[in-house]
Amino acid sequence: MTGKPARAVFIVDDDAGIRQSVGMLLKSVGIDTVAFDSPSSFLNAGLEDAGCILLDVRMPEMSGIEVQRRLSEEGSGIPLIFMTGHGDVGMAVRAMRQGAFDFLEKPIEDQVLIDSVLEALAVDDERRRTLAQKRSALDLVSRLTRREREIAGLLANGGSTRGIAEQLALSVRTVEGYRSRIMMKLEITSLAQLVRILEA
């Protein structure tokens, strides 16, 4: 990965030494970090700037697995990397099944941690790009009237102008007019582009 990631890594660990050493390591390779000493302080913070979450499994207030469950319930897709000094295979399997990006045992080798974080940040960048494309597609589709959305769907599913006209009891010329307006409103020039927008 080249350049500095746009998002920060959120470190959630009750051990101040871990927070400090992991933060310094990541900052040494140009990655911004935000540290939290408890799950509650983390959960009360906004996650907009988080590109990856490094989470201790065992903390006094709440387990990392419980934090993961709460994030999942909120629909967070931010990559989550567990760090633990008390890991076992069952816990790792459960965390991964629930969507964890990685599960690292302390002491963690510097390069292993850096590589995992960089991969997680790349996944988050792609997730954010996909979300932005979906939002953009939804914004474009919202410009269409109900009838235009209906015809757009039929066109995207391979319907011909004549077939759509017969199905909706419209003239071919009317359907062609709708098709032209749909293309103009969606700022596209081909049916392939229409399909991509409607699939987003």
| CATH H-level homologous superfamily name of the largest domain | Response regulator
Query: Whole-Å distance between the termini?
Result: 27 Å
Number of helices: 9
Order of strands, main sheet, comes to 2-1-3-4-5
Q: CATH topology of the largest domain, what is it called?
A: Rossmann fold
Largest sheet data: 5 strands, parallel
Shape: elongated
| C-alpha-based Rg, rounded | 24 Å
Question: Class by helix and strand content?
Answer: alpha/beta
**Uncertain parts:** 1-5
Describe it.
- The longest helix has 32 residues, at 110-141.
- It contains nine helices and five strands, in the order βαβαβαβαβααααα.
- The chain has a five-stranded parallel beta sheet, sandwiched between helices.
- By secondary structure, the chain is α/β, with parallel strands linked by helices.
- The chain folds into two domains: 8-130, Response regulator (Rossmann fold, 3-Layer(aba) Sandwich); 143-199, Orthogonal Bundle (Arc Repressor Mutant, subunit A).
- The chain starts with 7 loop residues before the first strand and ends with a helix.
